[in-house]
Specification:
The protein is mostly helical. The protein has helices at 15-33, 37-66, 76-85, 88-100, 109-125, 148-151, 155-176, 180-191; strands at 132-136, 139-144. Helix 2 runs parallel beside helix 7 (155-176).
Length: 200
């Protein structure tokens, strides 16, 4: 039986960013109404992973579009190569400096918050057992894992993950030269008009 041809779906470059952003907000709404602590842990995992994915997707799309501008065309081949070969760490540290002559300060503020968020994401995604042993009364448990960090996740972590990813994107737009009076329009473009949703 002949294979059906693959149907391609073309969309504006910001489409997945809107969807990532909406997905995180949807999870936060669920977390706010969750009555079970473990549900809140589960949702925090999703929000943390998706928030870092949102930033990486933004960097990939934003700078991919910039290299099509005449003033940045000399960076095109290099950035196209780095899109697939370079880590998020490299992109967030090098690309803003290369394009705008200034970078995000990762020693304080939003830069520091994003490094912390990314470290938590990495811990979750690359989790490995600590293989610990403990004894309770007369029973010894061997090969246990320390999941204290996971157990402490809550709704605030979900909200903070989203806000941190938004602030990183804001910082890149500022470095690009977007003025405050234009920022709302830019955020609407990159994160969706529903960006105006406020978490209380």
């Amino acid at each position: 039986m002949p294979k059906k041809p693959i149907t391609r779906l073309l969309a504006s470059p910001n489409t997945l960013l809107w969807n990532f952003h909406d997905a995180i907000k949807w999870q936060i709404r669920l977390a706010k109404h969750a009555t079970d602590a473990e549900q809140k842990n589960h949702i925090a995992i999703i929000c943390i992973i998706l928030s870092v994915a949102l930033v990486e997707a933004f960097f990939n799309v934003f700078f991919r579009l910039l290299i099509e501008e005449p003033k940045f065309s000399h960076l095109r081949d290099q950035v196209l190569k780095e899109l697939d070969e370079s880590s998020l760490d490299f992109k967030i540290k090098e690309w803003p400096r290369r394009f705008f002559g200034a970078g995000i300060d990762f020693g304080k503020g939003v830069g520091q918050a994003f490094i912390k968020l990314k470290d938590t994401r990495n811990w979750l995604m690359h989790f490995t057992t600590t293989h610990e042993t403990f004894t309770q009364e007369t029973i010894t448990f061997q090969g246990m894992s320390d999941i204290s960090r996971y157990d402490q996740l809550n709704v605030k972590d979900s909200i903070d993950a989203l806000l941190t990813s938004e602030q990183v994107i804001l910082e890149v737009l500022r470095l690009r030269g977007i003025q405050n009076d234009q920022m709302e329009r830019e955020l609407d473009y990159w994160l969706g008009a529903s960006y105006k949703f406020h978490i209380h």
